[in-house]
Amino acid sequence: MPADRFSLLRRWEGLILILLVAVTTWASLGVDGFANSSNVSFLLLDVTEIALMALTMTLVIVAAEIDLSVASTLGLSCAVLGWLWNAGLPIEAIMPICLVAGALCGALNGFLVTRLGLPSLAVTIGTFALYRGLAYVILGDQAVADLPPAYTSLATATLGPIPVVTLLVAVLAVLFVVILHATALGRAIVALGSNEEAAYFAGIRVKRIRFWLFVASGAMAALASLVFTFRYASARADNGGGLELAVIAAVLLGGVSIFGGRGTLPGVLAAVLLLGVVRNALILADVANEVLNFVTGLLLVASVLAPNLGAVWRRRTSPPLEGSLEGKSAL
Amino acid sequence: MADSPPPVLALREVSKSFGAVRALREVSLSLIAGEALALAGENGAGKSTLVKILSGVHRPDAGRLLLDGEPVEFHGPADAQAAGVAVIYQEPTLFPDLTVAENIFMGRQPRGRLGRIDRRAMRAQAAALFTRLGVPLDPEQPARGLSIADQQLVEIAKALSRDARVLIMDEPTAALSGNEVTRLFGVARSLREQGCAVLFISHRLDEIFDLCQRVTTLRDGGHVADDRIADIIPDDLVRRMVGRELGALFPKQDAVPGEVALQVRRLTREGVFTDVSFEVRRGEIVALAGLVGAGRSEVARAVFGVDRWDAGSVQVGGRALRPGSPAASMALGLALVPEDRRQQGLVMELSIERNIALAGLAEVRHGPLISRAAERVRAADWAQRLQLRHRSLADAVDVLSGGNQQKVVLAKWLARQPSVLIVDEPTRGIDVATKAEVHRLLSELAVGGIAVLMISSELPEVLGMADRVLVMREGRLVAEIPRGTATEETVMAAATGIGGGGA
Questions:
Q1: CA of B172 to nearest chain A CA: how many angstroms apart?
Q2: Which of A71, A318, B144, B329 is the most buried (most CB within 10 A)?
């Protein structure tokens, strides 16, 4: 019984994986046009930005914070790219500038959260509007489309059915899995997300880690903006609007606790794919957009509900802990 | 018992299991009007489960609950409250933004015309309750900012306003100072004399002997004995609780003090503590005594770097400490076992081995990665040295009893092999047998050359363990008493400032 907290979590991630396989199988057999190589490429391309931002978002949420400004950061980075390209800078110089701009966006979030002690939910709702607004100030409503073909074609190029950018995602995913699950930093992130005070008492530099997580989140949004811009061959201020919710949805569906301290990256990656496959299959099956949103919402509610049902069940069957309930539930 | 009126509330051969764990086995207990009954037992003996059955949180699997001699079933806490059962917890849960009076009458406010809350009546009734309790609390004060002791009194007033006939006090004194305990006991005695039945739970035996007339002892979920307090001495009770003879509770070995390991000079944190200077040598156990709120824990927190300080300096092994950084303090060999182990000492969701590794992540690394094998070895080694009672080191730490959780916190810090160990209330809320083990461990560590600074609110612990006693009062260090002359009287005199103030 004692270890079932962990096995239950594994079971949840297992469930997402099984669901992913089941939905993919169903779509391959029952949906015309799903199981061909160009659709698989399209599907993988389509989730690239979400997958990239979900990697950092997972760390941020495990650390009991949230970053709602990622899609706006993406838009701001797109705007910076378009503006500098119009100004005649070479694209090789622009790309690192975009990454720095994204990191600065994250640094502002991190500063407000860790130095001024503001809640990240409030801070990033604010910067959600701020960064998007800034994007419009920089680029207005024009679309910069005359981007170098070398990059736009690379962004959609494939090796067999696998897009080149998916390889980038895969490399970063491995890196992040190792960071979260096998390094001291990852261990510290889990600990501080679960109990910040105890982590601080154990000598973990809580604020510093949180700050750099926001920086990483911003830089990753900028990286996603590069993929996005080249993929659509269009830099616009409104690029990626609403993407933050898709990212957070995937992270939560993947079994990461919104309260921090719990979650695994394999689960999140499976959830990113699951949401992508469902979306793709339903579009191919000519299902209306409204239904699509409904299904996504349903999966999300289930993801929040299911672990809690598990917790209720556990509470009923496991012994109370001497001392653990003292002073709680007075009534 | 057959002649006298039936007990107000009684359990008859009550059993309760959770899954495969039998928390209570055929336990009987009687709460009699006008009498205080103590419930004694180590952690894990089933005391909490028993309280939860009496208060309607759990329902027994077998056995009966008798109210005034009649069988009764509590379907929830509301039933128990309606029957006159009130529970005072160690840390009450009041609504911080409501006033004391509003807290007392929450959900049962006196109504005026048109069903509006009659604030004046509510205030008057609350004031009357406090008069009856003999405590000067202001009904209009917001609950936020009340001390734990005052919050408990509000809970007792709430119980009184409901005409409670059974008052269950679940370790109410764990976080109280001496004066506050005295006041709480005064209230409990007067309620008892007014005909209340009191059930009192505490790990402090002297309190049981002070307040109660009878004691029921549990061990491993079973009923061990019912005694009249007048018929037994504390050693008897310990034997019933533990089921075997204990080694000495304070196995202090003599150690030869070595060089100065921790030197604190004129440390000041404005409004918290002022001009605190002391030193701790290798091999020494120095106790920091004083009333709750005297600033002891705050000094420890500042020395360790959890809080900042405004003036003064700290040296560890002759090297100046950078203020405000636990990581820097740890690098110089400082370790702090904090006051609140659940909130500050442990990450409850993490496993035992990961908690033990948490303060030394750099030491269980293999290249850039954490070595699970190194982590396991480190945890297994210390679990064995501290005789940790556990099933698997991969279990979440929250399945352990309080005493074993404290051993995990100790293991986490000892594994770093510190030169200075600060322990803040090292045995609060843990059972007698584990207490003795922790004391033995501290003594061995000191003999092994570690400098130990121990904060404790339990005078027997301070007197039994310390080579020197430092006493704080109102943020200042007011006395330093060597082992030879430290007695309850000298320490309390210095702590309260009554009768001289010590050496």
A1: 9
A2: A71
| Cβ(A145)–Cβ(A233) below 8 Å | yes
CATH architecture for segment(s) B246-333+418-503: 3-Layer(aba) Sandwich (3.40)
Rounded CA-CA distance B228/A116 in Å is 59
Residue B124 forms contact with A (CB below 8 Å) = no
Q: How far is CA A182 from CA A186, A205, A264, B399, B429, in A?
A: 7, 18, 11, 25, 35
Say yes or no: A216 contacts chain B, CB-CB below 8 A.
Answer: no
pLDDT (tens place) for every residue of chain B, 503 residues total:
445 778 999 999 999 987 666 789 999 999 999 999 999 987 668 888 899 999 999 999 999 999 999 999 999 888 998 899 999 887 788 898 899 999 999 888 888 878 888 888 999 999 998 888 888 889 999 988 888 888 888 988 888 888 889 999 988 887 777 788 888 899 899 889 989 999 999 878 888 999 999 999 998 888 999 999 999 988 888 888 877 655 567 777 887 889 999 999 999 999 899 999 999 999 999 999 988 778 999 999 999 999 999 999 999 999 999 999 999 999 999 999 998 888 899 999 899 999 999 999 988 888 889 999 999 999 999 999 998 888 899 989 988 878 889 999 999 999 999 999 999 999 887 777 888 889 999 999 999 999 999 999 888 889 889 999 999 988 999 999 999 898 888 888 888 776 543 33
Cβ pair A202:B23 closer than 8 A? no
Under 8 Å CB-to-CB from B490, ≥6 apart: which residues? Answer: B479, B481, B502, B503
Residue A329 included in any domain: no
**In this complex, which of A2, A191, A201 lies closest to B326 when CB atoms are compared?**
A201
Q: How far does the CA of residue B251 sit from the closest CA of chain A (Å)?
A: 26
Question: Could A191 and B347 be called an inter-chain contact, meaning their C-beta atoms sit closer than 8 Å?
Answer: yes
- Chain A residues in contact with B304 by the CB 8 A cut-off are 201
Residues of the domain holding A213: 4-315
Q: Using an 8 Å CB-CB cutoff, list chain A residues near B336.
A: 201
Which of B77, B354, B369 is facing A183, going by the closest CB pair? B369
Total domains present in chain A:
1
Contacts of A328 in chain B (CB under 8 A): 89, 93
In chain A, the N- to C-terminal Cα span, in Å, equals: 28
Rounded CA separation B351/B480 (Å): 41
Residue type, A290: E
A2 close to B (CB below 8 A):
yes
Amino acid (1-letter code) at residue B48: S
Task: For chain B, give every domain's residue range.
Answer: 9-94+146-242, 246-333+418-503, 345-416
Closest-CA distance, B347 to chain A, in angstroms, reads 6
Cα B356 from Cα B376, distance rounded (Å)? 9
